[in-house]
Amino acid sequence: MRLELVDISKQYPAVKANDRVSLQVAPGQIHAVLGENGAGKSTLMKIIYGAVRPDEGEIRWNGEPVQIASPAAARALGISMVYQHFSLFDTLTAAENVWLGLDKSLPLAEVTKRIREVAGVYGLEVDPLRPVHTLSVGERQRVEIVRALMTNPKLLILDEPTSVLTPQAVQTLFVTLRKLASEGCSILYISHKLDEIRSLCHHCTVLRGGKVTGEVDPTLETNASLSRLMIGAEPPQLQHREARAGAVVLEVRSLSLPKEDPFGTSLEAISFEVRAGEVVGIAGVSGNGQQELMRALSGEDVRAPKGSIRLFDQDIARDTPRRRRRGGLHFVPEERLGRGAVPTLSLAQNTLLTRTRAVGRGGWLRIGDIDALAEALIRRFFVRAGGPGSAAKSLSGGNLQKFIVGREIDADPKLLIVSQPTWGVDVGAAAQIRGELLALRDNGCAVLVVSEELDELFEICDRLVVIAQGRVSPSVRTAEATIEQIGEWMSGLWRKDTSDAQA
Amino acid sequence: MLRLEQRPEPSKAMSIASPLLALAITVVIGTILFVLLGKDPLRGLAVFFVEPVKSAYALSELAMKATPLLLVALGLAVCFRSNVWNIGAEGQFVVGAIAASGIAMLATKDTGNWFFLPVLAGGILGGMAWAAIVALLRDRFNANEILVSLMLVYVAEQLLNYLVYGPWKDPLGYNFPQTITFYKSTQVPRLFGSFRVNLGAIAGLLAVGAFWLLLFRTYAGFQLQVGGLAPAAARYAGFSSRKALWSTLLLSGGMAGLAGGLEVAGPLGQLTPHVPAGYGFAAIIVAFVGRLHPVGIVFSAILMSMFYIGGELAQSRLGLPKSLTGVFQGLLLFTLLACDTLIAYRVRWKTAVKGAST
User: Fold this and answer.
1) Which residues touch A392 (CB under 8 Å, ≥6 apart)?
2) Where in chain A is the domain with CATH 3.40.50.300?
3) Helix, strand, or coil here: A448?
4) Burial category of A152 from C-beta neighbours within 10 Å (exposed 0-12, middle 13-18, buried 19 and up)
5) Which helix (H) or strand (E) holds A98?
6) SS3 for A330?
7) What's the fold here for domain A3-231?
8) Partner residue opposite A338 with nearest CB, options B7, B219, B232
9) How confident is the model at residue B355 (pLDDT cuts 50, 70, 90)?
10) Pick from A349, A441, B137, B256: most CB atoms within 10 A?
11) Computed over its alpha carbons, how large is the radius of gyration of chain A?
C-alpha cells in the first residue's frame, strides 16, 4: 500500500471532524473521497498533507509508520496537493510561481524548460512566461497541477478540482489524471460530484459526519446509491412543470461596463431578458463576468449606462439597491457571510438588510416585529438555528443560505436573482432551495439563476444563456440544449451557431 | 503550560468582564509602580480611587471632568462602530471651544441668562465644521480620515494660539495669552450652588439615552453599524457609505464641539491656550473601554475622570509628576486590549504529566 490511514481521529472544540477514519491507497490508484461539506474530507486531507496533526491514529507510507509534521515533510515523502483555492501570485509569471515552490538550486530558465516538458507529457497547456493574472481559472489550475508534478509526487491530492472547469476542460483533466495514475502515481480525489467519481475513480471512500460510511467501487454504483451513502437518504426528486412565461420583467439591453478592478472582467454588450413565470440560468466558468453582471443588476454597481437595465420597462440602471427592491427586484449574493448577512449580527437584525416592514415612521425599529419575521423565516424554511437571536456566523453554510434565500423569497419578489444558490450547501438543503425557486416561478415570479453547476441549471432552468469573457450568448431552451453544446459555449464559442439557437 | 484555545463562540460574559479585569491589572501594576517610586502604594491608590469620590465637592469635580469625556466618547463610539476612524476629536473640541468663545464675546452686560444656549450651539457648529473638512476630503479625494483628522488637531491648536496671542487677546489682560473673561450670562447654569458641576452633566446623561436609542432602536443607527461590521453587506443592502461618513463625522464633531463649548462656557470662562486638555484623545480610550456602548461609556468616562483628578492630586499630595494620568490611561488601554483576547480565546492549563503524585 502506498498510503494507509489507521483509525485517524481529530477533535475540534465544537465537532469531531474525523472519527476513527481508515483509508488505503494503492500505487496507481485513483481514490475518491466523497462526502458533503463538513463531512471531514478537508481535515483528513490536511492531516495527510501535514497541515493538521491528528489526535489519534497512525499514518503509514509505503508500509512504514510516519509522522508528517508539516507540508514540507509531506513533500519530502512525495505527497503533493492542489488546493481548491489557488495560491498563486497574480503579478508573477507561471514559471516564477512554480519556481517559488521549488528548492532554489534550479535556475529559472531550467524550471521554465521543465514546465514545458511536464506540460507536454501530460497535455497541460501552459505558457510559463505569462503573468498569472492574464490566465483563465482553468489555466491557473493547470499551473498548480504542473507545480505539484514538478516534484515527481507519489501521491497527488486534488481538492474539488473541477468546480472551476468547463465540461470539456474536466475531460482533459481526467485524461491527464488517468495518464498519471497509469505511471504509478496515486491520486486522492476529493469531490461531491457523483458522476465524475463514477467515471474517473477506481475506489471510493465515503465520509459522513467524520466517519467512514462506505468503501465501494464507484464504477459499480449508481448516483442514487452513492448519494445514500453520502447523506443517508436519496435527494428528493424535483417536480418540474413546463413554464408559462408571461410578460418581460427584466430586460438587459446592450449593457457594457468597463471593469472596476484590474483583475476583473469588463462586460460587453450584454443583452437578455427574463419573463414572469420562468427560470433563466446563466452558465459559465467563474471569473467570466458573473460577479460584475450581478453587481450591475443588484445595484451595488450603478455605473451601468442609462436604459441598459429595465425592470417592467422602467429604467433602473442607475437606481440604488433599495429602489430596485421597492420595484420588486430581490437578489441573493454568492457570498453569504459578509455580503448577504452580517456575520456578527443576529438573524433578526439581518432581516433588516433587505426587509423594512419593521421600520416604523421616523425610522424607529419595532423589535418585536423583527424577531417575529426571523422566527417565521426559521420555521417556514426549516432553518436549523438557535432562534432569532443567533448570530449569522453561528449557522452552517447551508442553513444560512436557506435563511437568506428564504428572506428574499418571503419578500414576494417579482424578480429574484440568485447567485450560486447551492454553493457549499448539503444535498438536502440544495434540493429544498431548488424546490422553493421553482415554487416561486410557478407563482409567476421571474427568476434568474447564476451557477457554475451545469447539472443544477439543467435541473431548474427553462432557458439558459452562457457568459464567457464578459459576453452573454443568445438564450437556448433547456429542453433543447445539451451539456456538450453549453460546455462549448462556455469557452466563448457560440458565434458560429447563434443564428439557429435563437429560440 | 499555558495555552490559548479558541472558543467556539465569543464569550458575552467575558466582553463585560474584560474591562473589569483590565482595571484590576492596571491597579496591580499601579501598585508596583508606586512601590518602585518609593511611595506608599495604599496612599497612591487612595489618591486615584478614593479621593475623587470622597466628598460632595469631589464628586462634583469628578462629574465635571467626566462630562466632556462622556460627550466626546459617545460621538466617537458611533463613528468607530461605523468604521469611520475619527482620531481628531481633540481638534473638533478645540474649534468648538473657539466658536463658542466667539459667540460668548458678543454678550454684553445686559444679555439674558439664556445666552449660554447660542454659545453652546456655536460650539456644536464649530466642531461639526472642523469634522466636515475630514468628511469632505475623504468623500471627494478619498483622503485617509485617520491622518486628516489627526493633522487637523494641530491646525486647530495653532488657530487657537493665533487667536489668543493675536486678535482675541484681552487688552486689559497684562499681555497674557487669553481672551476677556466672559460675562456671567454666557455661563452654563450650575446644578448645586457653589459646586462647579453644571447642566452639561445632565445633557451628558440625556445624550446617553439618545445615543442608545439611535444605535439600537433606529434604522439609521442600524445602517451605520452594518457599514462598520460588513461594508459589502451594507452595499448589498443599499446603505449609503457616503451618508454614513458624513453623518458620523458631523455627529462626533458636533459632540466634541459641544464638549469644547461647555468647557469655555463653564469651568474656564475664557479662551486660553490650555483649552486642549487631551479630552479628545482620552475619549478614544473611554469609547473602547466602554465597549462602544453608551451605558458602558458612562462608567469608563467616570473612571478616566478619576485618573485625571488622581493625576493632579498625585502631583500636589505625593509630589509625583502629573503625567501619571497618561501612564494610567495607557496601562488601562493596553491591559484592555490584552484582556480582549479572552473574549475569543480561553486559557487552558495543559497538564504536563498525567498521574503525577500529589
Assistant:
1) A337, A341, A342, A343, A344, A345, A346, A347, A350, A400, A403
2) 3-231, 236-328+413-503
3) strand
4) exposed
5) helix A94-101
6) strand
7) Rossmann fold (3.40.50)
8) B232
9) very low
10) B256
11) 24
Do the domain assignments include residue B191?
A: yes
In a domain, B226, yes or no: yes
User: pLDDT-based confidence at B354, cuts 50/70/90?
Assistant: very low
Mean pLDDT of the region A189-214: 88
Nearest 5°: CA angle at B286, between B282 and B290?
A: 175
Asked if residue B26 belongs to a domain, the reply is: no
Cα–Cα distance for residue pair A341/B237, rounded to 1 Å? 9
Candidate from A14, A364, A394 with C-beta closest to B218:
A364
pLDDT tens-place string over residues B95-150 = 999 999 999 999 888 888 899 999 999 999 999 999 999 999 999 999 999 999 99
Residue of B nearest to A331 (CA): B236
C-alpha cell at A477: 431552451
CB contact under 8 A, B238 and A339: no
Residues 218-277 of B with CB under 8 A from A: 218-220, 222, 226, 229-230, 232-233, 235-238, 240
Structural domain count, chain B: 1
A390 → chain B, closest CA residue: B9
Best of B213, B229, B236 to substitute, by most chain A Cβ atoms within 10 angstroms, is B236
A333, A344, A359 ranked by CB distance to B229: nearest: A344
Closest to A53 (Cα-Cα) out of A11, A87, A24: A11
Please state, in angstroms and rounded to a whole number, the distance separating the CA atoms of residues B26 and A242.
71
A23 strand-pairing partners: A5
Question: How high is the pLDDT of residue A502?
Answer: 45
Within 10 Å of residue A235's Cβ, how many Cβ atoms?
18
Nearest to B62, CA basis, from B72, B73, B50 = B50
In eight-state DSSP terms, residue B214 is H
Q: Which domain holds residue B93?
A: 71-279
Q: What is the model's pLDDT at position B353?
A: 42
Q: Give pLDDT tens digits for A135-170.
A: 877 788 888 888 888 888 999 999 888 776 778 888
Q: Taking residues A39-67, what's their average pLDDT?
A: 89
In B62-81, the residues whose Cβ lies within 8 Å of chain A are none
The neighbour count for residue A27, using CB atoms within 10 Å, is 15
* Residue B3 located in a structural domain: no
Are the Cβ atoms of A335 and B232 closer than 8 angstroms? yes
> What are the tens digits of pLDDT across the range B30-51?
899 889 988 888 888 888 888 8
pTM reported for the whole predicted model: 0.80
Burial of A225 (0-12, 13-18, 19+ CB in 10 A): middle
Q: How far is CA B221 from CA A72, A165, B289, in A?
A: 50, 44, 21
Cβ contacts of A247 within 8 Å, gap of 6 or more: A275, A276, A312
Q: How far apart, in Å, are the Cα atoms of A245 and each of A410, A417, A484?
A: 22, 16, 26
Question: Residue A364's pLDDT is what?
Answer: 94
Q: What is the CATH number of domain A236-328+413-503?
A: 3.40.50.300
Q: Which residues of A touch B220 (CB under 8 A)?
A: 363
